[in-house]
Amino acid sequence: MSNTETIEALHKKTYDEVSQCIQCGYCLPACPTYASMETESASPRGRINLVKMAAEGKIDILEDLKEPIDLCLGCRACEVACPVNVPYGSILEHAKETIHDMEVRGKGNNRFKDFALNQLFMKPKSMKRSSDLYYFYQKSGLQKVARSVNLPEIAVKDIGAFEKALPRVPSKKYQIERGKRYPAKTEKAVRTVALFLGCINDAVFYHVNYYTLELLRLSGCDVYVPKEQNCCGALHAHQGQTEQTKKLAKENLLAFEEYEVDTIITNAGGCGAILQEYDHLFTEAKEWKAKAKAFSGKIKDISEVLCSLESLPFQERLDAVVTYQPSCHLNNVQKAGAYPEKLIRQIPGIKYMELPSKHSCCASGGVYNIQQYEESMKILGSKMTEVNVIEPDIVVTSNPGCLIQMSHGINTYGEGQPESIHLVELLARACGIKVE
Amino acid sequence: MNKISEQILNELREVVQENRILVKKSELYSFSFDASFGEYLPDVVLQPQSKEEISKIVTIANTYRIPVYPRGSATSLSGGPLPTMGGIVLDMSQYPKAISIDKENMLAIVTPSVITASIHDKAEEEGLFYPPDPSSSHVSTIGGNILENSSGPKGLKYGTTKEYVIGLELVTPMGEIVRTGGKTVKNVTGFDLTRLIVGSEGLLGVVTEITLRLIPKPAHKMTLLASFQSVVDSGRAITNILSAGVLPAAMELMDKYCIEAVEHYQPSGLPIGAEAIVIIEVDGHEASVNEEIDKCSDICRSFPGAVVKVAKSEEERVKIWKARKMVSPAITQLGPTKISEDATVPRSKIPEMIERLHQIRVKYDLNLVVFGHAGDGNLHPNIITDKRNIEEMKRAESAVGEIFQAAIDLGGTLSGEHGIGILKAPYMRSELGPALDLMKMIKQAWDPHNILNPGKMFPQKGQTKVVLTQNE
């Protein structure tokens, strides 16, 4: 594909979308990178305009467009603020796809991208490899893993920064066995659901999946855990690797198809968001698009389902001050942002303190915090200032990326206090679910 | 068009921090537009951090005759901050933000980069009230509001931005730092330069500090929605209410095309089939508010077929206003390009103006919808089109010209709150006549080298109508 053809392709994909922007600027106050980088090119309105300029051939895709696009967190808070519903997420992914394709052709491909996404998350069929990699990580450390695949030194250093943010995980016996049906722990099952495990939660945070499963069972759900499910593909999509995303999407569509459930549970906002948008991936393949539509309609975050079941068996008072950093994708894409707070408020003994900037991203952004470490830390720093004012005992999150990021923030700016846990872990404690 | 040589850039580097000098192509394109039309590349974007920096920048600009374009959040609908002749964009949105409320004197002293809504919030915390409420107030800077003299629905009762600005600090086009007005509401010492600067669209100075007058916050408010079988009735209802001695905080009108667009986009319970609806809000002490809302209802109901719904709870009140806020997103579903005008007429002429607008809609076969702040005669005829459709854009250009002419014919004005910028400049002579030359003389005296925001407000040679397609 020549340069002109690339520009034409970008134009075809997204020009109608970018033309919807009326440049009113209502997105500016919602954008965390506009606030931290203090320039229009780091705002949604600025980025949309730059994509438009690139599609018109006025600026160069790699020279001029790539950097501002790379600096976007993809939190999509701008979509909620937009009065005319500009599909920013779609524009962003079209731009990333174009940039990625050009880089691959120009062999300027970012090696970290390849490592993180294809080695770590893109696993054929079974997810076993990632837990093996995790085992390797536990033995030798994340930096060693990164070095072993010849990452540039700067990325190794920045990955190393997150080393301490990863949790000490409980025994492997809590890792969920796939291809099984887990019966409800109530007298009668009220609902049958399927559980989406996700790759990071399955490999690193499998206690989060375990708590999710147990909370569902205690609330009266029979839970299927389909065997052939794979990584959701969100990180690939955010890097513009559309083909890989489609491949993963197809695997997941097939994996869940055979189960007759009306709800598929996720516990990671980042996964939930892309799963809910699988149908956007298939523009021409009608059969897949139909499958994806049916699948996407079933995706629900664990918090929404637990809220609607209203049957969590709280057993213990948790006398703790709790604050919550939402998952942007749970808020802005899944539109399920209200449920986690609702659940936290129900827990006996909890004093819930709202984070003033709760609608603003923690700057985890998938792997943004590794790729754009310094920019990410600026945003995290101001978030942590607010956390430190509240002085909570626990910071709750609802996505593994946010969990690592907030833990990192606490280690860096909060002297290791408070602790940061996933919402389901907090609920599990209150419901007396114990792990060793 | 490169006006800025390496040598000039080096001189600017002596004044402005390196990270506040933006020259990358991606940055220049990001400062090339606002919420109106066109795309104009600056040569450099500067983000000054003090009035001294601004003074030095302006001095350098004078030496080398470089245009300087101050810019806030660039929400302008008239092209106010567009760098039409290249040169320097002075990005004032990143100027240090400071806001202090003087409760005793009921004042707010703010820097220009402060977002207007945060003045609303801070004032409210002290039981005070800053009334000007442009619909972009959660995005726009107070600096931009001052220089465009913008306002919103509350203009009817509380007046526009100019009523609240009593003191300014600014850098003149020659680089001097001066103060106008002060902290007193009464001040007759010399010419009222404060008033001159407010609404001067950045032609006369770069404002660096603003002293705003605040008023006590009204304790209570009530809202109603009335629908009418004819536009004339809605206009009469508005004038009858005002002449009955009730001064509502807001009176918002929507024509049938707006109603249809909203209901089509997101059903909000608006009466389909009505020719016009009016939203009326009254505020003040509870007893008088109750009395006034009843009076408004009675007057509206006196028109045949009119239906009135008074909000009985805060929830219902919010719902009524939500329908009004839906107008903008709803109408953009009709097309990607929105030409938003703000021609204003004496309020008695509103029915006539709406009829003229509907005739223009038919004549040019355009999607023209009308809503706006009817109580003060400030209508927003919006043409929804697609700027890629050159043929339709040409029709829109002619329609815009006729809208302005209609407003002037009815004793009104080109702009109630959006400003002149580049979009209305061609029509200035037809409204102002020789007064336009007085304005030009003031500009010439203040800014002999035409450094600040050149190309705005005054028609360019041979320009008689707006051209919306030139830059495409």
TrEMBL record, chain A:
Cofactor binding note of this UniProt entry: Binds 2 [4Fe-4S] clusters.
One Pfam entry for this protein is Fer4_8
Q: Which reaction does it catalyse?
A: (R)-lactate + A = pyruvate + AH2; glycolate + A = glyoxylate + AH2
- List its EC numbers: 1.1.99.14
Q: Which InterPro entries match?
A: 4Fe4S_Fe-S-bd, 4Fe4S_Fe_S_CS, Cys_rich_dom, Glc_ox_4Fe-4S, Helical_ferredxn
Q: Which cofactor does it need?
A: [4Fe-4S] cluster
Query: What are the protein's UniProt keywords?
Result: 4Fe-4S, Electron transport, Iron, Iron-sulfur, Metal-binding, Repeat, Transport
Domain 4Fe-4S ferredoxin-type spans what residues?
11-41, 62-94
> What is the enzyme's main class?
oxidoreductase
Explain the purpose of this protein. Component of a complex that catalyzes the oxidation of glycolate to glyoxylate.
Q: What is this protein called in UniProt?
A: Glycolate oxidase iron-sulfur subunit
UniProtKB/TrEMBL annotation, chain B:
| Required co-factors | FAD
Q: Which residues form the FAD-binding PCMH-type domain?
A: 37-217
Q: Does the keyword Plastid apply?
A: no
Q: Does the keyword Oxidoreductase apply?
A: yes
Which UniProt keyword terms apply here?
FAD, Flavoprotein, Oxidoreductase
Question: Which Pfam family, any one, appears in the UniProt record?
Answer: FAD_binding_4
Task: Please name the InterPro entries in this protein's record.
Answer: FAD-bd_oxidored_4_C, FAD-bd_PCMH, FAD-bd_PCMH-like_sf, FAD-bd_PCMH_sub1, FAD-bd_PCMH_sub2, FAD-linked_Oxase-like_C, FAD-linked_OxidoTrans_Type4, Oxid_FAD_bind_N
PANTHER family the record matches: GLYCOLATE OXIDASE SUBUNIT GLCD
Q: Per its record, how is this protein called by name?
A: FAD-linked oxidase C-terminal domain-containing protein
Q: Which organism is it from?
A: Rossellomorea oryzaecorticis
